[in-house]
Amino acid sequence: MKLLRNVLLPFAWIYGAVLHLRHFLYNKGLFSSTGFNKPVIAIGNLNLGGTGKTPFTILVAKLLSRHTKVAVLSRGYRRISRGFLLGSEKSDVNQLGDEPLLMLRSLPQCKVAVDTNRVRGTRLLFDEHDTDVVVLDDALQHRKIRPDLNILLTDYKRLYVDDKLVPAGYLRDVKSRAAAANLIVVTKCPQETDFNAIQNKINPLPHQKVFFCGLNYRQLRKLGSSQTVAVHCIENESVLLASGIARPDYLLDYLKEKCSNVHPVLFPDHHSYNEADLNRITDLFDNFEPPLKRIIITEKDAVKWEQPLLMNKMERYPVWVMDVSVHFLKDGEIFERELKKYA
């Protein structure tokens, strides 16, 4: 793998040159950016995905909503709708996309909208939908808006400072873009994280603050139901994990610690499940030895599995959704004070 990545380095250099040129043109004002007279907060990463952006965006919106009227704006990846769309109780995954629908359901106190044209979407939220702060989801590469606050997320196991541009690595933007961030958040940290070592490796600029977050697997929820059980209920069980997220390794490792046997069935990020996928999963579940106790999926997968056709297929199976949240390992109060400046 290392040899292949070295072979691909020239392509990464070409891609990097294009990115540097793009940022240069924006920085010099040759490409225009739009600012707003109300606060805009951009959350993003330099990696292709898997930094825990969705649960972190939910956390930020919840913290802000204690003080002001908040809307989250996403482009709505893989939705079939077009233009600006404000989420509602009737919205489904085809209209919004999986991550915006998950945020909509997790944030009843906030608005969630989608628009590939972020400038238009932000303007509509401010002008027509009674919004005081817009949180831009996955927007660090989006230079057409000038955010008031940039939050950069980086995965504990794959820090951007240690990575390379695609196709030689997993970065989709140049490392120098990190300089635009006001707050850098290292996500998915274990409890025993060496904060000083990572802070020294990141080497933040004087205007930057570094924070550390971990994942909290809170409970299991029965698919299509309000029934929940504590995570300790799966201890020593044999389970099947079906997952279509960018970095399932954290959840897989967690389940391996809890369960006697874990059989993963993994799909690409943002995977659109069909009947054939569910047949593959149910065939494994029905015929696995020793017998499996549950099928576990993520919240991001659940918004797609809850479509009527798929729900009918899975109604006789014990499908449970692993609820996940984000918590600060330290300095959470400082982070909230930073956010409150824009409320």
Overview of this structure, please?
This protein has 343 residues and is of the alpha/beta class. It has 2 domains: 227 residues, Rossmann fold (3-Layer(aba) Sandwich); 110 residues, Rossmann fold. The protein is 34% helix and 23% strand. Strands 1, 2, 3, 4, 5, 6, 7, 8, 9, 10, 11, 12 and 13 form a 13-stranded mixed beta sheet that branches. Helix 2 packs parallel to helix 4 and helix 4 crosses helix 9. The longest helix is centred in the N-terminal third of the chain and has 26 residues.
Task: Give structural attributes.
single chain; 343 residues; Rossmann fold; 2 domains; 13-stranded mixed β-sheet; 11 helices; globular
Helices and strands in order, then pairings?
Blueprint: H1 2-27, E1 40-45, H2 53-65, E2 70-74, E3 85-86, H3 93-96, H4 98-106, E4 111-114, H5 118-128, E5 133-137, E6 149-155, E7 183-187, H6 195-202, E8 209-222, E9 228-230, E10 238-243, H7 249-258, E11 261-266, H8 275-287, E12 294-298, H9 299-305, H10 308-314, E13 319-330, H11 332-340
Parallel strand pairs: 1-5, 1-6, 2-4, 2-5, 6-7, 7-8, 10-11, 10-12, 12-13
Antiparallel strand pairs: 3-4, 8-9, 8-13
Helix pairs in contact: 2-4, 4-9
Q: For the record, what CATH class of the largest domain applies?
A: Alpha Beta
Q: State the helical fraction.
A: 25-40%
Helix and strand composition category:
alpha/beta
Proportion of residues in β-strands: 15-25%
CATH architecture of the largest domain: 3-Layer(aba) Sandwich
Shape: globular
Number of domains: 2
CA-based gyration radius: 21 Å
**Element order: H for helix, E for strand:** HEHEEHHEHEEEHEEEHEHEHHEH
Number of strands: 13
